[in-house]
Amino acid sequence: MDKRLIWLAVGSFTMSTVGFVFSSLLPSIAADTHTTVPHAGHLITVFSLSYAIGAPLLSALAGAADRRRLLVAAMLAFVLGNGIAATSVSFTTLLLAQIVMGMASGLFAATAQATAVSLAGPEHRALAISIVVGGTTFAVALGAPLGALIATVWGWRGTFGAVALLGLACAIVLWLRLPRGLSGTKLTLSERLAAIGRPGVASSLMVTFLYLTGAFVIISYLAPLAIDGAGLSPMSLPGLLLAFGVGAVIGNLSSGYLADQIGATRMVVLSLISALIVSLVIAFGLHFLAPNLAGLLLIGIMLPWGIIGWAFPPAQASRIVGFAPDVAHLTLSLNASAIYLGIAGGTAIGGRVLENLAAADLGFFAALFPVAALAVLYAGLRSYRRRFAATPAE
């Protein structure tokens, strides 16, 4: 393995940490900016939308640029965004910082995967991509709880400052270690989006979107769910995120093996059904259990919830690649955009639930989306089978 891939993974870790640590920062950000937690949730929505739009759009604009320069520029823009956030004096400034960070993250992610394949060679494409994407998994497992812990000591501004320092160190190493003259392939935006037209791809991207929407109706508002819904202390948030992150690593590592054993589609279906059950358990538990028992329930469910939640992405990615292996680099990039569109959608919906109902109601709304995803998955498979009289690779 080319050791330079590790630094691309570190870059993914750094950028993804911002997206996943927000769930613990929202109450303190809301208090300092004199707004509500649901309104502060717009920061997650803006970051995620900027990522989803920035990945294909900026990649199309800068597709033929030197990848070393492009990756470092994206990382430095991300560092700038974190610096703006850490020193912001208004909520509007924070929103602008999220746009900068989201666009930079989308560009970095798309470019990093393409660069990883170039460094490792086509025969090691899957391994190279998995290493870079693995940085995101460790952002959930380590970055988010560490960011939450930093926030308890130095405040939410300290979290953004720490991420900026890590990003700056990563940019320096990437500049020193990546080769010069590694040019990308220029594809127009329409050429990048054309992969959606491949059989099976559009419905799969919709399943990804719906799954992440349901998940982030709850995840984005974990802090009010834990504090207001389950009666836990704010000091419990780093521990909750750590338990969820450990589960994410287990789920991510085991998903590929299980998908090989039972089939990627069955693994996705199992993840969707499990997500539905977890959402309902959280909703009913917080509604009908005594506060002390509700808190214990939430603590106890974090590890299995992480396993379930992160068993989905590898299996779903395997399905999407199986539909169109020759354009895997494009479909995986589109899948990443669908993930962040889902995060944006789930955060927006969860915020409206909190504005009008109780934190305990988040689970009921979250449960609607795995059901919708199962319906889309079933309809997509039927359409695919009618067209080719065969099932996708399982």
UniProtKB/TrEMBL annotation:
Its main location: membrane. Keywords: Cell membrane, Membrane, Transmembrane, Transmembrane helix. Pfam families: MFS_1. Residues 4-387 form the Major facilitator superfamily (MFS) profile domain. The chain crosses the membrane at residues 7-30, 42-63, 70-89, 95-120, 127-154, 160-178, 199-223, 235-255, 267-290, 296-315, 327-350, 362-381. InterPro entries: MFS, MFS_dom, MFS_Efflux_Transporters, MFS_trans_sf. It is found in: Cell membrane. The keyword Transmembrane applies. This is MFS transporter. It comes from Sinorhizobium psoraleae.
